[in-house]
Amino acid sequence: MSGGMPDGSGRAMRLDPFALPVRFSARDAAADSRLRDVVLTRDRVVVRRAVRGMRMAVNLPLSAYRGVAIRMLPPDAAGIAATAVVLEHKDPGLALELYVAPDGHEVAAEWRTWGYVLGLPLLVTDGDGGLYEPFERIGQVRVKPVCQRRRRRNAIKTRRPSILLRRAPKRLAGNAAVYRGEREIIARS
């Protein structure tokens, strides 16, 4: 998979989601120079590369991407595997690695941050390599199970009768004084 990991001494790479737009170079096996330039903004992704001497730029809206996923990367030449946060597209050649680290300590935080900043769903990979959403959603709203009333889990529930939770409706006194035709009502104590 081509991605956003620059050539360098280490495998760790982090882009700042709060500093958008961001420009970076990523490895691309199909490109002439084995690199592509990527510009990521809050609503667009522009990928520039040269293939067989022909320069091209692919300008995609962010809505063309499926979501932000966590992926395990295969071991490199040194035998170290890594975990990546990837901006997933239907075409694997357009997927972008946003965060890569050999240890998975901060992967969940980066994954949630990128999903929030870009407004895309959070995805995880299953055993077959397919993507699915770990949380149920209705549109952009995440759905959680309904919480129990706090009262039922309370340690002192048996000390208080539940009838006190109900409030009696207030009844207005039928003989309340009504003042009409007055110019001013002044309350005096």
Summarize the structure.
This protein is mainly beta and 189 residues long. Helices cover 6% and strands 32% of the residues. The protein starts with 12 loop residues before the first strand and ends in a 47-residue tail after the last strand.
Can you walk me through this structure?
The structure is a single chain. It contains one helix and twelve strands. The protein is mainly beta and 189 residues long. The protein has a domain at 13-142: PH-domain like (Roll). A six-stranded mixed β-sheet has the order 1-8-7-6-9-10, covered by helices on one side. A four-stranded antiparallel β-sheet has the order 2-3-4-5, with no helix packed on it. The chain starts with 12 loop residues before the first strand and ends in a 47-residue tail after the last strand. Residues 1-10 have low confidence and may be disordered.
